[in-house]
């Protein structure tokens, strides 16, 4: 079910589909073992079998989180599912969510973390892609509260991708408050030291987080999820009054 | 292969920085710098299967006690490992054992070429690290169901199994504990994306490797100073 066309802010593309980062796109099987589709299919099956209260969706930052002990400690008890696929861009996540990964489930909270792999796109396009994901979730899962995680800095020393990711975060800070049921959780602080360097202790390859790196961001994330899970419709109404 | 043939898998090649944050080169330099004051007995070199191993508890349990260093880089093919070695990644250290685990990312290369690339790594190590025993790990199956890459990796292992024992101080270990089930499927409990090992997958695979390393280290000791 597609919604009617929405008015676009003046500083955005005039048509949503002229932003390639906001066009759903399945990953091609370039390697020859079809792993992307296999993972997607598994997630679709999970939607049929399971009843998650919390859904995580995104790239390897999401996927790897499940490999560490911290997932079992903090998120499994919340009945969380992990639909992260390494290498994914916003376009890949959009495709997956449109093609079954939001069906048969009714999570209370959806965590979205994607954008650092959008190498072909500008910061504006990446932010637009993330907004498109949030709008899709609002349509298909109107009951769900969305948490968008900020993009992290990357690379050992200052480099253009750090600036780009920071720009994406800046754009999201401005645009997300205009969308429904979503907030941006900025977890990007604390990784860049005073000399501009990122440590291998936080990101083992200056991109992917170590267990210690995840511990830094998961405390705030877990607290926010707990808060959103506990908010009942009555409490929310009272807060708005 | 005749002398005129160039095997891309055995041609030292740096990984191009297409993303723009220079991470590959930064890690290569970090490996060199960090090894200046270390005296590892075992060095692991290879791709993400090596690199990720260090993120799990099992590294601390089984391999840290052996004074091991980890020079794994995700995405590396044999030609990238060759370049790193040629550029002196191990110039500061003289380990007793080097574990080589690479080849699954050699996309577009034939099994023959990949095996040739791994052999080139072994020969380079024999030149640079004549004191070291080299352990080459077999390539694992991948993908959720049967696919051409499984077949290629299997062929690489077959070639290595035949050729490596002829090289001095070299052994080949197929550490696959049986990841492919009778229905041809690989479980995401072992490989969370049907390529990279989960904690559970490493727990199934590492004991055999660990046992081999202990045996080889024991033999090194027995041989005397």
Question: Secondary-structure blueprint of this entry?
Answer:
The complex is a heterodimer of chains A (241) and B (225).
Chain A: H1 35-49, E1 54-58, H2 60-65, H3 69-75, E2 80-84, H4 90-98, E3 109-113, H5 123-140, E4 145-149, H6 160-175, E5 182-185, H7 211-230, H8 233-240
Parallel strand pairs in A: 1-2, 1-3, 3-4, 4-5
Helix pairs in contact in A: 3-7, 4-5, 5-6
Chain B: H1 23-34, E1 42-46, H2 48-53, H3 57-63, E2 68-72, H4 78-86, E3 97-101, H5 111-128, E4 133-137, H6 148-163, E5 170-173, H7 199-222
Parallel strand pairs in B: 1-2, 1-3, 3-4, 4-5
Helix pairs in contact in B: 3-7, 4-5, 5-6
What does this structure look like?
The complex is a heterodimer of chains A (241) and B (225). Chain A is α/β, with parallel strands linked by helices and 241 residues long. Helix content of chain A is 41%, strand content 10%. A five-stranded parallel β-sheet of chain A has the order 2-1-3-4-5, sandwiched between helices. In chain A, helix 4 packs parallel to helix 5 and helix 5 packs across helix 6. The two termini of chain A are 32 Å apart. The N terminus of chain A is likely disordered. Chain B has 225 residues and is α/β, with parallel strands linked by helices. The termini of chain B are far apart. The model of chain B has no long low-confidence stretch (mean pLDDT 95).
Class by SSE composition of chain A: alpha/beta
Mean pLDDT of chain B: 95
Shape designation of chain B: globular
| Number of discrete helical segments of chain B | 7
DSSP, total strands of chain B: 5
Approximately how much beta-strand content do the residues of chain A carry? 5-15%
The 3D shape of chain A can be described as globular
The number of distinct helices of chain A, counting runs of at least 4 residues, comes to 8
Biggest protein-protein interface?
A: A-B, 32 and 33 residues
Keywords:
heterodimer, A: 241 residues, alpha/beta, five-stranded parallel β-sheet, globular, B: 225 residues, 7 helices, 41% helix
């Amino acid at each position: 079910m597609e919604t009617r066309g929405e008015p676009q802010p003046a500083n955005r593309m005039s048509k949503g589909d002229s932003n390639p980062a906001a066009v759903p796109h399945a990953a091609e099987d370039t390697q020859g073992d079809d792993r992307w589709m296999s993972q997607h299919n598994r997630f679709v099956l999970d939607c049929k079998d399971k009843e998650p209260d919390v859904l995580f969706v995104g790239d390897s930052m999401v996927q790897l989180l499940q490999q560490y002990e911290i997932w079992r400690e903090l998120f499994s008890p919340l009945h969380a599912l992990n639909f992260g696929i390494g290498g994914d861009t916003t376009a890949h996540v959009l495709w997956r969510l449109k093609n079954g990964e939001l069906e048969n489930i009714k999570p209370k909270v959806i965590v979205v973390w994607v954008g650092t792999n959008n190498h072909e796109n500008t910061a504006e396009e990446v932010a637009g892609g993330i907004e498109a994901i949030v709008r899709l979730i609002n349509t298909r899962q109107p009951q769900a509260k969305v948490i968008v995680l900020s993009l992290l800095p990357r690379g050992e020393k200052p480099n253009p991708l750090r600036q780009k990711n920071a720009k994406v975060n800046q754009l999201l800070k401005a645009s997300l408050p205009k969308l429904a049921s979503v907030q941006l959780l900025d977890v990007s602080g604390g990784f860049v030291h005073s000399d501009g360097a990122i440590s291998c202790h936080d990101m083992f390859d200056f991109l992917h987080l170590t267990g210690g790196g995840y511990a830094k961001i998961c405390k705030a994330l877990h607290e926010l999820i707990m808060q959103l899970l506990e908010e009942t419709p009555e409490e929310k109404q009272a807060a708005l009054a | 292969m005749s002398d005129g043939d160039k095997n891309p898998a055995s041609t030292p090649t740096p990984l191009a920085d297409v993303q723009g944050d220079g991470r590959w080169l930064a890690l290569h330099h970090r490996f060199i710098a960090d090894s200046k004051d270390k005296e590892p007995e075992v060095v692991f070199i290879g791709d993400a299967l090596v690199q990720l191993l260090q993120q799990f508890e099992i590294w601390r349990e089984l391999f840290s006690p052996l004074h091991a260093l980890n020079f794994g880089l995700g995405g590396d093919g044999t030609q990238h490992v060759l370049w790193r070695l040629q550029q002196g990644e191990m110039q500061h250290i003289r380990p007793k054992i080097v574990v080589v685990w690479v080849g699954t990312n050699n996309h577009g290369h034939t099994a023959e070429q990949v095996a040739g690339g791994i052999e080139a790594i072994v020969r380079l190590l024999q030149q640079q690290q004549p004191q070291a025993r080299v352990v080459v790990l077999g390539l694992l199956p991948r993908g959720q169901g049967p696919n051409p890459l499984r077949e290629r990796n299997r062929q690489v292992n077959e070639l290595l199994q035949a050729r490596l024992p002829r090289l001095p101080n070299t052994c080949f270990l197929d550490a696959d504990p049986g990841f492919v089930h009778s229905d041809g499927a690989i479980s995401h409990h072992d490989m969370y994306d049907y390529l990279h090992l989960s904690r559970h997958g490493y727990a199934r695979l590492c004991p055999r490797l660990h046992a081999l390393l202990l045996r080889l280290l024991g033999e090194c000791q027995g041989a005397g100073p």
